[in-house]
From TrEMBL:
A single cellular component GO annotation: endoplasmic reticulum membrane
Membrane topology summary: Single-pass membrane protein; Single-pass type II membrane protein
InterPro entries: Fringe-like_glycosylTrfase (IPR003378), Nucleotide-diphossugar_trans (IPR029044)
Superkingdom of this protein's organism: Eukaryota
Cited SUPFAM superfamilies: Nucleotide-diphospho-sugar transferases
Record bears the keyword Endoplasmic reticulum: no
Localization: Endomembrane system; Membrane
Chief location of this protein within or outside the cell: membrane
The UniProt record lists the keyword Membrane: yes
One GO MF term: O-fucosylpeptide 3-beta-glucosyltransferase activity
Biological processes per GO annotation: brain development; camera-type eye development; cilium assembly; cranial skeletal system development; gene expression; limb development; protein O-linked glycosylation via fucose; protein secretion
Provenance organism: Naja naja
Family: Belongs to the glycosyltransferase 31 family.
Protein name: Beta 3-glucosyltransferase
Amino acid sequence: IVSSTMFSVSYSKNSSWIFFCEEDTRIQIVKLLKTLRRYDKSKEFFLGKALHDDESTIIHHYAFAENPTVFKFPDFAAGWALSIPLVKKLARRLKNEPLKSDFTIDLKHEIALYIWEKGNGPQLTLVPEFCTEDFNSPNGVTCATTFTNFLPQCGDPVKKTDIFIAVKTCRKFHGDRIPIVKQTWEGEATFIEYYSDYAESSIPTVDIGIPNTERGHCGKTFAILERFLNHSPAEMPWLVIVDDDTLISISRLQKLLSCYDSSEPVVLGERYGYGLGTGGYSYITGGGGMVFNREAIQKLFASKCRCYSNDAPDDMVIGMCFSGLGIPVTHSPLFHQARPMDYPKDFLSHQVPISFHKHWNVDPVKIYFTWLAPNVQDLEYGSKHVREDL
């Protein structure tokens, strides 16, 4: 996240560039050095593989609404680089000017905006050798970087019976949103409950005892967390809380969770930030799905940190609580707070997404079966683990 500490990094007096990348970015060092030598290291350069919005989108605060394609920002998966003169300029600026934005939603777009400085700073320079797919182009360009675009997996997928799914809903959405869940991903889940302000046996929903609120749902979410602690089997390690208009792949989540130690506190999802330039905190945005393990929830309740009102923003309050506990939230770019069309096509092309959010102006069933539905291998994993547990 952009902050005054971001550019307070140690580098050799002889360094010409700072190169940033993802943990799964593959780098051919010799090729990368050769590529960087094409650019004048004494000038302010911002290098990367360019992404752009096809339509203005809420996740970028509807920036460049008249023509969002004009503004380019870097695909972090391909890596991006800053020349040292630009690094020094940004460090001075961060030291002398506080960041104006309270919220950090999409870091790659917000960094590019900050560097561009309303036309006073450099725009992103496209580097063909910064790639997310390995290829040799007809004009002789070979990739200095590539990206591993498979779903992270660190062993056998977590069993479906180890994951409890909590769906937040309310009476007014029982008739339109819940049927979509049942048509799409409900069948992937072994343990799932719908928490509402009204008990409807045909679904069924559980009246969680918290009135519906139009804004935040802190009271409802904390009631779900407490119910998980007190009423689910003690050996069940994982809780996933989603909205009733979240689309999610449980089989892919099973694989991702194999990379986390359930004995250590884990809070996982799409990370947003609030007030990070002035000592704020990160939080998992709720629409894309919030993943907790039992250890994290136990530490949360032991801390006595709670909602200041039932309609407080649940995801932000939870983030503030974990920040106070010194427990970091873990970002995964595979969870999405918005719809597929709200993200650049090139960005999604090297992802195996786990979730999307919102039914607004889309066919959510089509989105699920296009982007998230399990393949045959996923189904085999799932049935294998269910048989093992039975």
